[in-house]
Structures are given as C-alpha cells and as structure tokens.
Amino acid sequence: MGTTTPPRTLAEALRARGDESLAGLLRARPDLLNPVPNDITQLATRAGTRASVVRALEHLDKFALQTAEALAVAPDPAPYATLLSLLTGDGLDDGEQRDDVGAAVTAALPGALATLREQALVWGEDERLRLVRTARELLAPSPQHPSPTGLGPTVAEATAGMSPGRLQEILVASGLPATHDPVSAVAALSALFTDRTRMAELLDTAPVEALSVLDRLVWGPPYGEVTPNPTPPVKWLRDRGLLLPVSTRTVVLPREAALHLRAGRAHRVPEPVPPVVAAAAERDPQAVDRAAAGQAFTALSTVEELLKLWNGGGPAILRAGGLSVRELKRVAAALEVTEPIAAFWVELAYAAGLLASDGESDERYAPTPAYDEWLDLPAQDRWTHLATAWLPATRVPGLVGGQDAKGRALSALGPELDRSASPDVRRRVLSLFAELPPGTAPDPETLLRRLRWERPLRGSAPSAESTDLRSRLALWTLNEAELLGITGRGALSSQARALLEEGEEAAGSLLAPLLPEPLDHVLLQADLTAVAPGPLERPLAETLSVLADVESKGGATVYRFTPGSVRRALDAGQAAADLHAFLAAHSRTPVPQPLSYLIDDVARRHGHLRIGAASAYVRCDDEAVLNEILADRRSTGLRLRRLAPTVLASQADPGSLLEALREMGYAPAAESAEGDVLITRAGARRTPPRTPPTPVPEGPPTPDETLLGAAVRAIRAGDTAATVVRKEQPEGATGARASGSLPRTTSAETLATVQAAAMTGTAVWIGYVNAEGAASQRVIAPVRVEGGFVTAYDHTADEVRTFALHRITGVAELAEDGT
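The structure assignment produced for this chain is given below.
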C-alpha cells in the first residue's frame, strides 16, 4: 500500500503504522497479546472484539470517551470538522461561556483523537474518521441501550419500514413538497431538520406545550410513551416528524431534530479539561510529617498488639472462610477501635504476610514466622513493610460487613474481598496528593470528581454492592492512608512521598528521626501501676506485658499489676527474686512496698498446689488446703476424691482443673509426669512458613519492552508471511495453494527448493508443523541444508532457527517484487 493511499480497513491502518506505534497499541491494550497475534489481520480482528473494546473504553478519560461517543452518532466516516462541531456546537446558541468551552475543546481534541487512534478505536485520516464497528455498536443509541449522549436514531433509521403514505403526510404537514420516493422523502425531512433557518421557522409555529415536550426529550432519553389518542401538542409534533413512532406506544425524537435543539452539540457539557483537585487546607509540612509519623508508630503498635492477641493461637476459621463477626468484635474491643478499623488492621497484617491460617485440622489463624522477623526490624523498616504491602493489595477491608452478589455476608479474611481495581485507585489517589504542594490537604469531593473524569466508565455499571466502586475505593484509601501514616492531617507526608518516588530506603531514612526513641524504664506507682512515658525497648515491653496488664494506652501506657498477672509471670518461669530485680532495674522510682508484698504473696502460694494427669490430680503437702477444696461447693463439678492424704483425683482434664481452682482463688501450678513444674510461655504458636496473599491482577499485566519488541517483530514477520507475493506455479504443480493456506509439495520438491534457496541466498515461504502439531506459515532464508534439517533465518521469529525437513508441509518461492 502506498503511503498516500487512504486505508480501507483497520488492518490496513495498523499495517501502515511504525513499530513504535504498534508497540504503543500493545502497551495500552495488553489483552491483545494473549496470545501474540500471527499477523496484522489477526491483530485487527482481535482489537475489534467486544470484550477487548469494552476494556479499552473503560480506560479512556472523560473527554476521549466523549469524543468516541460523538463519533458514534456522527456519519460514518466523519470529517474532523463534523466531529469538532458535535463537540463545540454550531456557535449559534446563546449558551454561557461557549467560546471558552469551544476553545478548550478545540485545543484538547487532537490529543483525545490521538489516544483513540493509538488504541485502535479510531482509524482513518482526518477527513474520513472511523470509529471501530464494535465501539459504534456499544455507544450508538438504541431503545434497549440509549446513547450516552442522549441522542436517538437518525430520521432514516427511525422511519425504516414506515409507509410512503405516512411519509408524505409528514412532508405536507412540515411544509415540504410531497414525493412518492421514500428515499427522497427521508432526505427532505433530514435536510429540514438540519437547516437552522427552516427549522427555526417551523418551531416558531409550534404550540408552547409542544416545545415543553421537546425540552424534556432533547437531552435524553429521547424516547417517550404516548396514548392511542395523544394530546394536541404531541400530535402536532408527531404529524411533523419531530416525534417518530418506534412502536404503537413509543415515540422518539430523531437525532437531527435533537441536534438542532442542542445547537449542534452531542453533549450538554463537554469536559475537555480534567477537574482541578482543590486544596481543602494548607498545613505546615513539618507538622504533617510529625502527625503522620505519630500515626505510623500507632500503626506498628496496633499490628503488634493484634498479633499478640493471637500468639497462642487465634480464632477458628469459618467453614466458608474468614473471621466470624463475634471474633471481629473481640478484636475491635481489644484494640479499642471500631469494627471496620479492626477489619483493616487484620487485613493489613494478612496482606503483609504476618498472619495466616495454621493449616491444622482445627484450622485457626496465627502469626507466621515472618512476624518474628518483622519484630526484629527497626521501626521505620517495619512501617515500610506494611506500607509496601498495602499499596498493591487487592483485598478491600471496606467491604467487610457488606454482602456479595448472592446476598452472603462478606467477612474479614474471607473470600470475595478482592477487587482488582483497588491498587490502581490507591496509587492514583496518592499521585494526586503528590501533585499538590507539600502540606496541602486536598478536598475529597474534587478529588473524586477528578477520578471520575479519568475513568468515567470504571465502576459505573450497576452491581449488588455499589454503583460507583471506584469512588468508594478512593474514600477508603483516604481513611486507610491516614490510619497507616501515609498522610498526616489530610496531607501527604514527606516519607510517603519518598516511598512512592524513591523507594523504601529513602522513606525509612525520613521517617526514622520522627519516631520516638524506645525507653528503658518505667515509673512505678503506689497504686500497683506502672507508667511507661513512651514506647519501651522490646525486652522490657515483652517482660512487662507478661507481668502486668495494660490498663490504658495513649501517649503514655499504664500497666496494672494484679495477682493474676504476677502468677502469669511465675508460670512463665520467673522467680519472685527475678521479678524484684527486674522492677528495681527498670524503674525510675522506688519499688512501692504494696507491689513487693503482692509479688511475695503470690509467689508464696504459687505451686503450693500441683496439677497433673490422672485424668487429673491435685497434690499438696498441706492436708488442710485439700480439705478446704473438698468442702467448697464450687468444686462439686470437678468430682474430686481423695487418693491419699496429700493427693486428690479428678475426672476433669488438667487444664480445666487448673482454671477452675484459679477461679476459686487458689494459685495451682501444672506439673509434668516427672513432678517438675511446667513453665508456660506466651507467643509460642506459629503457622508454617506462609507467603503473603497474591494480589488479583486487573486484566493482563503491562508487557515489558522486551516482550513488546519481540511481539511486534513476530507480528510483522507473520504479516509478511501472510501477505507476501508467491511465485506463480506451473499448471498442475502441487505448491500452488489458496492465499493464506499452507503450501503442499513432495519431499523431493521441498528438498530441492530449499537447497536452491540456500545456494542463491533467497527467501522462501514454507508451511511447518511443530512437535505439538501446531501448523504455521513462515518466510525463511535457508543458510544450510544437511542431516535432514534446514538452518535458516526465520523472519517470523527474527532469529536463526533449525527446521526438520520432515515437518515442512511444503515450500513455495516468492515473487521477485514480493521479497
């Protein structure tokens, strides 16, 4: 095809493109690469399939989509001037600021058209612009699927099948000459509706009520219902063809008439320029960074506290998967947050690989071995680990508590929470934050408007859970970013900006100086409490969490010592002397006497009773204590009986017996079969090594440059093989086949032809069947023929390959002007 010949098909338009342009198409629409098309014709066919076109339309911004919608209602093909007129109007209306809008549309249209051309949705020269047929079918008006522009069918489409007599009646009522030719009648009526002067004169004679009817239909939907005996205004419009019948009870405003009433505009409000994200507040960037760092530290503490709750084995997994509502409420109460926020922390720990199922028969959630590794990291590295797990995650905690398409409840950690659009929305929201000056908090409403402009079709289809999932994802992103410390006081922090632009190391270096230094001391109070005025060093925090219960959290954490908490420390193997030494070493205040007495009192009674397995037994050197237990009514359910003066037996298991006696006020200790006290240590249960959940991708991944280059070469070579001119074969020769089919030659003819091509250095066309039985056609330049194999340069793969002669179905020479 010559460079000046206009393309007749999409395939010809794609064939005329350069390699870089083809690579751009495949980059923008990666679904076309699965698998790599054999040639340009197959690429064009695949680019016109409904699924691929829908996916491409979903990735258009508002103005590019409006441009495609305008082409869908324009003549096919449409000149550039017609398209521009549909977007700007004919300039004869008195709308406000139409000149400014027209100038913006004029400036933006070439870019929108270039986007549509690059994605193979539009092809042809400016004087003959064509929207691909599938896109026209999707965007063009019909009674079942009204056009996004609100326009109805053309006069020709609406009058198809109308009787010539009825057409003549319409022409006469409209003041037009009657004609018996239906084609001429339709043309005359169309010309009337597109003539500004004559159309204005016709509407000047219309009743006021008829104009009101037109006003209701002009911007869509253009269809209306009528009764068998319509009102006079409707009858006036129907008689003059301004309302044309679609069925016995439905009429439509024809497209030409609607465009006149709209002053030629396909859209009420063209949107050539993206909405500006407005600033809601201007804050001190340093204050933003400090606020975000404080929240980042809170996020680390919250995740750590969550996983400590499940250290000994977390809640059971529901049969359908996920966490029960009751367990989620328990987590929320323990973390002192709402249930939606608790669901976010649970899902974040899961996405970061710190939490998983243990895989046992009685399946439960528990921390993973990666959690212990995470705890050993510096605080800033722990935060970047959480943030980088959150950014690409496709699981959406905000859906927890809602219902799926079948009305089933969606649970935390359960199935059906993946939404493949969430990483794209999350990244885009943060990039819009980053475009604002440091310290600027964006207005959420303008941010949502911008997102809707960029992807107007994404998430707009009605569904059981939302009519605008993309907007909901954006709002959840705003909340989650604040909880995680990505933003502070509504603005993007410097450390988050560095994470997005430079990576984890840069973000960690900015965050580290803003995090509080861990302390090595607490302040003991006389009321059996300890105050930690800041974060504690890990060994101190872990020991103190066993020895005391957290009473309140905040800038300072208050721990309370109780008999139960001291017994917990003794159960973990600590002696009273160890606890006294620990408190003395880590308190900036003297150890209060009541606390020392508490430790000594619990230690004196700890282990006085011993619980072992009989089913279970109680052993005590003091017979009076055993007599007291037997006399207590609360021990009736334990079914105790005396085996010896110092031993009681029970039919309850040791664990139940241990807990029951503790509830009765005793301090028993479990013992082993050898009679040694069993030490119980918290945090010993871990799942087997688990990998974090894999995000669910949204369509095919974007191909890298290497794959794009190889795909373009393969498509070009395949196109050459499919369109190359073959040398005419003599009459009766077996090599002559229909265009596009594999050549067929005998083994002797194949060998002779490829040997001759190797000697002369020419290319030939072959049919080849590989080891899997897949047939293909190729253009090769043979280099060497020996041992039953042909070594040749394969134009299809753009590399030197070896072909087995017995797999070559046939060979044909190329015409001299085809090489």
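Interim note for the steering committee: The longest helix spans residues 285-309. The chain has 33 helices and 25 strands.
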